[in-house]
Amino acid sequence: MLKSTLIKAVEAGAAVMQRYFQGEFTISNKEGINNLVTEADHASEKAIFEVIKTDYPDHYILSEEAGAIVMDSDFKWIIDPIDGTVNFAHGLPLCCVSVAIEQNGEMILGAVYNPFIKEFFFAQRGYGATLNDKKITVSEETSVAKSCLVTGFPYTYLDLPNSPLDVFSRLIRGGVPVRRLGSAAMDLCWVAAGRFDGFYEHKLQAWDSAAGFLIVEEAGGRVSDFAGDRYSPYQPHIIATNGKIHDELVEVVNGRHKHFVK
């Protein structure tokens, strides 16, 4: 029943996205430049909540716009009603709904749905990952130099050593193609599907990665923090790969790789 509720909730949010897409809706700004929230984000979140609360009124919810709705429950729903809001606001179809379920601290289910390109990614812990009900697996690339990577840039960050621009510069100067889609959930799913060999980002929130990181792991990939340790969506750093380039990409991101230095 958890799975069916998850699918219903994601589909409800996606239906709202489709209704508002390229139409008229209000847009406001959160903290920082271009950190947008739209009327559609709130409407999608409301539709998702209604589905969850109908079936599981006592479950904990953590959502991007509403924040934490704390309940004494073993289950937590982690929700991004529209991942890629800037894309959505500009009429770019690179955006999605992302919902994950955590049980006693372990992510057990995740779904990411982009209704505009009709791609529904799903994973259940221990059962693999699928795209539109067909099994997916990560790529076989073994070298960062031959990889196609994807990343994102935070809207606000201190200009510290080894900043996102420093890492990006190292890779680009080394001839590695690095894309920037504007949706971390989609980035992760496209790693899981083998379209990208790896993804890294310096500053994510739990709702950005909770579903996607499980999908990568269940597709045979590896996800860690920047130290290469076990990933938690409650810290900001993420490296997700096919597993074969993981240790090397960790070295590159940390500025320790001899072939990718300034």
Structural overview:
- The chain has 262 residues and is an alpha+beta fold.
- Helix content is 31%, strand content 25%.
- It has helices spanning 2-20, 39-55, 85-89, 164-173, 184-192, 206-218, 246-253, and strands at residues 27-29, 36-38, 60-63, 67-69, 75-83, 96-103, 106-114, 119-124, 129-131, 134-135, 149-151, 178-179, 198-201, 222-224, 238-241.
- The strands form three sheets. The chain has an eight-stranded mixed sheet, sandwiched between helices.
- Strand 9 (129-131) and strand 10 (134-135) form a beta hairpin.
- Helix 1 (2-20) runs antiparallel to helix 2 (39-55) and helix 5 packs parallel to helix 6.
Q: Radius of gyration, rounded?
A: 18 Å
What would you call the quaternary organization? single chain
The strand order across the widest sheet is 4-3-5-6-7-8-9-10
Major sheet description: 8 strands, mixed
Mean of pLDDT: 92
User: What shape does the CA trace take?
Assistant: globular
Question: What portion of residues is helical?
Answer: 25-40%
Structural class label = alpha+beta
Reading the helices and strands in chain order gives HEEHEEEHEEEEEEHEHEHEEH
Strand content: 25-35%
Low-confidence stretches: none
Total DSSP E strands: 15
Cα(first) to Cα(last) distance is: 52 Å
Number of H/I helices: 7
